[in-house]
Amino acid sequence: MRALVQEIRYATRSLQRNRAFAAAAVTALSLGIAANTAIFSVVNKVLLEPLPYPDPGRLVQLMSTSPLGDQVLVSVPKFCVWREHTHSFESMAAYDFASPAVNLTETDTPEALQTARVTSDYFHLFGAAVMAGRTFTGAEDEPGARCTAVISDRLWRGRFGGRRDLVGSAISLNRAPCKVVGILSPAWKADGPVDIWLPLQPDPAIADHMNRLHAAARLKSGVTVDMAADEVQKTIRWFSGEYYNAPLLYGERFTAVPLRDGVMGNVRPALLLLTGAVGFVLLLACANAGALILARSSRRAAEIAVRSALGAGRSQLVRQLLLETMLLALASAIAGLALGFGGVRGLLVLSPVDLPGAGFNGSAIGLDWRVFAFTFLVSLVSGLVCGLAPAVSASRADLMVLVKDVPADSGMGFRRGGLRAALISGQIAFALVLLAGAGLLIRTFVSARTENRGFDENGVVTAQMSLDGPLFEQTDQTAEFIGRVEHNMKQTPGVAEVAATSSLPMQPTLIMPFTIPSHDQTVVGLYHGAAAWRSVSPDYFAAFHIRLLRGRVFSRDDGVHSAPVALINRMMMKKFWPEIDANPIGDFIIINKGPRRELEDLPRQIVGVVDDVREAGLNRELALYVPIAQLPDGLTARTHRLMPLIWAIRTTGDQVSQASLARELQQTAGLPLGQIRTMHEIVAASSARAQFFTLLLTVFGVVSLVLAAVGLYGVMAYSVQQRTREIGVRMALGAELADIRSMVVWQGMRLALIGIGVGVPAAAALGRILLATIFGVPLLDPTVIVGVAAVLAITALAAAYLPAIRATSVNPCEALRR
Questions:
Q1: What domain range includes position 539?
Q2: Could you tell me the pTM of the whole model?
Q3: Which residues of 761-773 are buried (b: 16+ CB within 10 A; e: fewer)?
């Protein structure tokens, strides 16, 4: 123990005498450790920590898969079939957090409440604690049951003043009474800022095949996820039998996955990609520090030879040299922990999206034993990686160094020079892979942003409004209300167009099956296909500047008592009327044909074709548009229950503020508004998460570029110092300054070109395999690879040129005296 303490003291004094070296090594390692700590703190919270529910290991999410991808949202009929025909689960629940807000109409000034609709087992499944009252019973979750509600502690205290008698009494929701049966404990955190929970009341008799629900279940004891997935898949025969016209995708299967996998969605592969990226950064930092340590050990050749001559064994020399490296790694761990944690909190605060489980702006991310243990382990491994090879190499003491005339040249054998060269080439290869990945993502998102979306978002303000309730169950009532609001809002100065719609471009919408009577063969059951469906008011296309290609758009005459009409987009026209001279105008289409007459639409005549509009995920899809004033009454009531009405207001300039528009719209409609956003914000939010991951990957790429440049500069500067005598001899024999510079620059560029040569195929392979899988980038862009390689080559040239300038300043007389 005493010997170890003495060795630690010696290592500390040795590093204190070489503070510049110690600072450079700690800086390089701390950057790598900081990047790894930052990403691990997110991975720890999002992927590793248990979900905050009772016995989370037995919770699964029920979903479907197909060759087109995973579908985590399911329909009511699927949930009902799973609940009835499976025996692997103790309990099962469905929940919809995208439900439209309900209006609290206790006073003359309605208030919009964030709403979730859940089945009766939801609260038990997720361990929701009730502060007062109870949750829903099975009878209250039956279709047609009277309205009951469970409210949050925040709503109870903030809106109702903490009234003790609220449980059991009725409140007014959408002008109708609703009984409050329970108040949730503030200790239970819901998935989102929900004010009130209402029974979902799933009706298996309604052929509502819109995928809008999450479905979760708890496994019975002894049942594995694979066993449950097999049983869920077998229910597809009951689903197809009971809903013979259900639109199933080609190759669609039912399955069950661990709930964490379903909740994380595409976050998991993206986080794993970033984890691999920071692993590259750590390797770069270790290579950089290793090159510095190797260079320093070469300078200490005489010291090591003296210690060996005095009896120090090789193992003792390795231990001493490795101990110095571990002290550097420990200092780097402390700096990296602070830098990494502060950096990730700053990035998450700047991030426009919230990662699942990370809390708002990363508020749930903190330092726990996992983060400390990970940082300690990373620093330990880093110290071993960057110190072991130099320590073993330096411990090969050459006693002839003590009698050589040129001790400065000692330690510059092929083995050590080759190791430093390999480290630098590896750094450049890793840097190229990271920069190429970041560049590919940036190029993809820039292209998506600059490509024509099919609509103009400039100057458009949107606002949500709930129409769920008895006042808007009839289509003619809804149409009259929308027409009145649109007419009055157009009188507002600065307002050019006002329109209403069931959903906006770039946001999810209903997917409705359709049939075309003039076409013989159907594709899916009774249907020819399914398309994104929107009910819109006549000015919708003018508000978004969506181009009309054929026919006409809707008019005020397309009302309840006129012939039903529809519009389709260009993609749908090309798919179902592919002939050059084919014209869909005048043809008929039937939407949502099924056994429920109140939801079945009448045959509609196609009166126009509009341009394609980019939908959710920046994709183009088949699209159908129908007038709001022509929906069947049953579909109107159903739509209002499932989604809010959305207003789109196009302004003529910046003189109209968003706040004044919201006040005017709320006063005109007499109903509260939900979320208010500009279309710029909606467009940005559609790709915000992927852009955040791109930002992180770019940051790591830039860090790797800096590390590679610094590493190359350090090796070249040390090489020039070691070759001072050789350079002096060359200059004394008549070598030109340009020749000396070319020699030094070429030595550095050779290392860089080797690294680029290794990095290009690695970047191409990883780009195709990882980025295409995670972010949907279909092809590798050679422009990005060439551009990144050029940047690295220029950076390497600059890093090698500075030592070359220093080499030409050598005085031959002084060099020959060494």
A1: 467-670
A2: 0.69
A3: eebeebbeebbee
